[in-house]
Each structure stands twice: as C-alpha cells, then as structure tokens.
Model the fold of this input.
Amino acid sequence: MQQRALEVFKSKSIFAKIIVVFMFVITPLCVLSLVINSKGESAVKREIDKSLGARTAYFSNLLAVELNRMIQHQKEFIFDRDLQRLVYLYNTLGKYEWGETILRAQEKMQIIKTSSTYIKNVSAQMLETGKVVSNDNAIGTVDRDAVDAFVKQYHATGSPLMYYKDRLLLGYIYPDAILTQLKPDYVVFIELSVTELRKALATFTKDYEGAGAVLADLQQGWTITNEQDPTFISSMLDNIQVRTDKELPEINRFRSGTTDYLVSYQMDPSTHMALLVYIPEKQVLGDLSSYRIWFWVLSIISMLIIAVFATWIYRLIHKPLTKLVFLFRKVEDGYLEPAALPKGQDEFRYLYEHFNSMVSKLKDLIHKLYEQDLRAKNSELKQLQSQINPHFLYNTYFILHRLAKMNDYESVILFSQYLGEYFQFITRNGASEIPLEQELKHARLYVDIQQIRFSNRIDAEFDPLPDDCKDVLVPKLIVQPIIENAYKYGVERMSDDGLITIRIVSNPETVRIIVEDNGAGMDDTNLQKLQAELGSSMEGEEITGIRNVHRRLQLQFGKESGIVLGHGENGGLKVELVIMRSQAQ
Done:
C-alpha cells in the first residue's frame, strides 16, 4: 500500500507535489491545535459542570433545610396538648375554654407560618369533629377530598408533599397511618406558597438569560417552575431522564429547537422532590465557542496563505511548464506553430526558444511528407471511384439487354432515358465530390431503373433529406452501390412485397445514411465477419461495392467514418454510412 501511494505521488505534477507537501506540514499543526483546543474545552466544561452541580446542590440543600424545619415544626405541633384537647376532649370543654384552646393553637400555627417565607398557611384537619383550625381562620370545615388524597398518596409513596388543586401541601398524619394502618384522627397541613417558591426559583438563575429552575416530583407528576412554557418543561423532563436513585447532583444536556441547555438536578430523598436548574450552553460556553471560531479562522488563514503561495508557484513555475507541455501535445496533434516567448530571462525562455526551433524544423519535414502522402491518398481515392462507374455501367447494359430480349419497348425507352440522364451527369460533372442532395437524386434515378427491372414487385422509400444535410459534400456514388447491394443480396429473390428504405439521420456530430431491406438478412456470425472484412487491408483484392464505399468514406472523412452493419427492423440487413461532420467540408 505504501509503495502504491509512493508511485502515485511520483506520478503527480510538480505543482501538485508542492501543494501536498505544504498540506502535509500544515495539517498536523492544525490537528494538534484542534486537539489542544478540544482538551482545554473539555476541561473547562468539566469545571462548569462541577460549578453548576455545586450551585444546584446548594439551592437544593437550602430548600431541604427549609422543608426539614417545617417537618420538625409539624412533629412538635402534632403532639401539642391544645390540639389534642380540641380533637379528643371537644365534648368536655366549655365555650370559654374551647375558645381559649383554639386561640392558643392558632398562635402556635402563626409561629410556624412566620418561621419561613415559603409557608402560606398552617391548618389542622380534625377528622373526629369534622372541623379545621388554621392560623388565619378560627374554625372551618374539614377538606375531606384533600385529606383523602393525601392519605392515599402517603400510603403509595411515603412522601409528605402533595400538589393538590394548585396547592402544595406538606402534611403530617396522627397517628401515623402508614404504620398503624388506622384511620387518622387529624392531619396537620402546611401549605407552601407557590408564588414564593417561583420567586426563589427565579433568583437561582437570574444571572443567565434564558435560564430557569424547576421543582418536580416525578412520581406524582407535578412541577413548579418560573418557566411559563409547559411543553418545554415536559420535553426537558422526558429527555434528561432524571434518576431518582441519585442523591448527588447530575449533569445532562438537552436540546430544544436550536438551543442547547445544560441541566443539573438533585433529588431530596425525604420528599422525593427534585430541583432542576437549566442554563443555555452559550451563556456559560460563549468564550469557548469564540476560541473555536478563532481556531477555524486561523486554519482558514493558513489555507489562504498556502493558496497565495501556490498561486505564486503556479505563475512562476507551473504555468509556463504547463503551457510548454500543452504545446508539446499540440505538436503531437499536428499543430506546428511557434510559441510566444515568456517575458522573463529565466530557464523557461531558453526552453521556449529551442522549442520554436524544433517546431520550425519539424514543420519543414512534415510538410514534405504530408504533400507526398496527400498525393498518394488522392490517387487512391480516384482509383476507387473509377472502379464504381464501370461496375454500374456493366449492370445497366445487362438490364437493357434483358428488357430488349423481352420486347418491352416502353421500358427500354424509359430505361434508356434514365440511363442517358445518369451518364449525362457523369460526363458533365467531373468533380469527385458532390452535395449529398445530388447524390440522393442519383440514387433515386437508380431506384427508378430498378423499378423497371423488377416490375414494381420491389419498392424503395426515401425519407425527406434534412435541410442541414443538403450541402454536405460526399464522394460521388456512395449511396447507389449500397442500394444495389440491397437489391442483389436482400430482396431480389422475393416474389413480392420487397422493400428498401433509405433514411437520413442528422445530428451536430454526424450524418448517417441508413439503407435497410426486408430480405432474409444474415446471422450474427456472417455479419461480424463482413464487418471485420471492411476494416481489413485490401491491397491486392478486388475492391467493389460495399467495401469500396467504406474505404472511400474513411479516406475522405477519417477512420471514425465508414460503414457500420447491423440487423434491420424488418429482418434484413441494415447498412449505415457514417460521415463525421468535423471532417466534412
């Protein structure tokens, strides 16, 4: 593999080698810079994750301390003598004593309420009496629905927190129903202020635009947040997959729309509540992104420097060298003209001067050889064409002889007229090349002669000649021998319904004259053999008919021209005369 790569490198041009070497030098430096930048970015991200996790843990611990203090107040208040007298001795208390007991209980509830800004209300739901006492209301009716929902949730999860009808309740049951499986006598609710919690959540991330915090209980499915878009919060909770078995802060990443967020969360095992803090990455990683941009700017500048240097090398070395190589290729194609000398006096001027000297000498030599070859080619072309005229003459006199023997005088008269017109043109126009339109007129005249011969049992159809082909110069008598071949070997033995079609297909590159018949045709083997014989050396052979036309087309229009054989659409032989427009005059 290395040997192969070395061979490929050696085969490249000098300019390509210079570019490859520069890229080989610059690329490791760019990759090293990218690795260093990536490692530094990773280290900074880890520190940011730690900082965000510590921030989340701090806020989560503050809330946990507040909730634990509230729970402690609940535990102390649950065994309050005044509260138990109201529950168990309400039938024995007089009105004055009843009122005094309620006031003392309310004072203790008020003390609990003022112990935290997050407490909105404290109430005791006395299920035995069906009454409720709270710090802001002397007496009321038990909220049975709230109590039943809390008891059910407490049995299911063991969490003392419940979100019920837009209220966040911290409850404590007496006696502990989860242990005794008894119906509770009373429940103490501390209603937390959702408004104050939202304010606190907003202060957690006030330093970052687009950031926020969420309090959530994933088991109960409630959330409290300063973010007003519930779809965003729901999508975030679904994507980060909060782990309830983790007590330490966890860091996740979440994408919403086109914005990436860092999300840190911590669980409180006593309340089953999680605090989530999310911050847009660009708020904390903005500088890192700029470093990444500067790295790419540096890389682009390096590439531009390479491009400028490569352009200078190109103008100094590669451009004149490429031009010299191009001139040599033009010499290979036969273009023998001197090159313009470069402005400088360097080594390339020396090369160009000797190139012009070489071209001048080659031009003289080739001119002499070309004139000799051209004379030989013209002689061969005229010889090939001269072989066609006698061949046609022989055939026409044989036909005239047979018509005379059959005493078909009308056909003899018409045939003699056609024959006279044909030889009148031959003797009047001595040019070896004629327009394609005139060549097809001669072919039609030949078909008219054959119609007399075969008494209309064989038909020939000519498609219209395209306008852009009428003036294309072709060797004289190239279509008639092909039609004659179709008569002789294709349809001559058919008793009726013989058909020969002549079509002209034109495109910007070629003109194709297609002659097809509906005769028996030939199999693939014979067809390939005949096609091969067309391209073989024909010295010492009798060259007539289809071979003659093929040879003349190639002499006139080049090796890409000539005859192509194939199977016709009607089962017979298809002969295509291909003329390259680039060689036609």
DSSP finds 15 helices and 18 strands in the chain. The longest strand covers residues 259-268. The CA atoms of residues 96 and 162 lie 36 Å apart. Confidence is low (pLDDT under 50) at residues 538-543.
